[in-house]
Amino acid sequence: MERTIYYRPLGDSITLGTGAFFHRGFIHSYSNAITNVFKQPVRTELFAQRGMMSSELKQLLNDSTIQRRLAPANIITITIGSNDLLEAHDHFLNTFNPIVFERAEETFYKNLIEIIWTLHLIKYYHPSPYFIRLIGLYNPFPHLPYSAFWINRFNAILHSMESPLVRYVDVLTPISIRGRRVLSFGGVHPNRKGYQLIAKKINETGYEPLSYLQL
């Protein structure tokens, strides 16, 4: 019997595919991977906006209309945190006080807990098998001496959220190895190859607990 897989990508400009021009970012490649795995149609609905911060995603998920649209989700991917860190960087340039990064880190941690909790709650009231993939941050500014430290700290928060239903996707390592070859002309967002790489890394995390749906 044919069954539809419901995929709901959430997040910022990385989820939107900014920088890929006529390519649909990692969403297109990953949706194709899902179809190949399950041999069933994938219905995708995107919830993302450029510049989205964790506080804005948290607020979005409190909207009852959005919750209803997320209810059937079997697969959820999230890209969030980059703009929290960029905003802290902008404040740092004005104050040169590193406490702005510490505050951003604390806020991101609290917001991420609430985001994941809300998604679990939505699925609790609309039970169907599902999983969540948290896509890590990469470093588009390796020339900044403090960038690696704080990106690793934010990635550590994402990684700490792992559970049987939540997996962290490391994209920092493969993107750092390939460097500018997988980034767009502006050097901030991935290019087509970069997004294909992200999709590949998500795919490698597997499909538990949906694997029983495989033909």
TrEMBL record:
It comes from Alkalibacillus salilacus. Transmembrane segments: none annotated. Pfam families: Lipase_GDSL_2 (PF13472). Residues 10-197 form the SGNH hydrolase-type esterase domain. This is Lysophospholipase L1-like esterase. Gene3D superfamilies: SGNH hydrolase. InterPro entries: SGNH_hydro, SGNH_hydro_sf.
